[in-house]
Amino acid sequence: MLQIWLGILKGLPPASVTPQTVTALHLRAPLLSCSDERSIASALRKTRKDTVGKTQYQIFPGIVEASQRDAVMERLRTCNRILSFHSFFEDMVYLDEVSSCEPESILQELRVSFP
Predict the structure, then answer these.
(1) Which end of the chain is more exposed for a tag (fewer CB within 10 A), N or C?
(2) Residue 57 in contact with residue 66, Cβ under 8 Å?
(3) Please, what sign has the CA dihedral across residues 54, 55, 61, 67?
(4) Are residues 10 and 57 in the same domain?
């Protein structure tokens, strides 16, 4: 997970990733989904006013230069699935269930389903 986010930032300050950024991007798959790619590109352009009236980008607010934001988008386009701690723990629920199964029973089910 760390490697994914470091790859997206590629030398930019880690503080550029805010909780809002993670929430907006986690579980997106821009490499595999045109809809996710468009959604992320749109989110990278959206701005909002902060508490003192200053305009900030909604995601990656610390990255203000257009060329850097474009570079981030290009790197995001190469991501199969963007992970977060939330998605990690959700995945663990399913992996825990699978790990508790007996391998022989799974193989037997596969043999019956696909002779």
Answers:
(1) C
(2) no
(3) negative
(4) yes
